[in-house]
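pasting for the record
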Amino acid sequence: MKTFFIYIFLMLISVATAEAQLTNTPDTLETEKGSLVIQPILHGTVVFEWNDKIIYVDPYGGAEAFKGVPNPDIILITHPHGDHLNLETLEAIHTENATFIVPQAVADELPQEFKSRIQVLKNDESTNLLGISVLAVPMYNLPEEDARHAKGWGNGYVLTMGGKNIYLSGDTEDIPEMRSLQNIDVAFVCMNLPYTMDINQAASAVIEFEPAIMYPYHHRGQDIEEFKTLVDEAGRQIDVRLKNWYPAN
């Protein structure tokens, strides 16, 4: 038994060390209309810059997390949980020129000061804003009858910018709608128990819908190195990119 606990301790140290060696420096992807800059921020938060427009996804972490990042033109929020709809962060950053794209459950909880700038999307609805196509897709847990995230309560999103399709899973499990995605150039897929899914479920789904570039995010406590190994061993053309979504304070 003592040996077992030592093994677990060493595994946790190994994961922590590996994450500490990662960076969250931005990546750049060329599109039909200029460069798309992808900036990991924290946990489930990412910022995109494309065609002089700035998109925040699930802003979280307070003003400090966005130091040096331009103010948003669009804010996407997936669902009302506090690490996605974070009012403290929204009130700390400059959102006055931003349009919020959200599910109804988020619109219901946003303060009055944001109400005039909200656009509500249901699952499978889409909009085009500032030259960016936004499609809301399902995100939910299984089994549906006892789900932490119920179907229709929140949105994942597929953004299309300059001919490139970017998928943001939100908090979801290994659902059929994710597996059936097609022509995804960049994917951000969550993996953290007990709220979403484990690395095996996530890897299986990613291998099936086969995005060109894959970022594991929202993965606190999970072994993303092992996730990458699972995907790489499948032999598909998927570039798994590991970033430091949990930078040290």
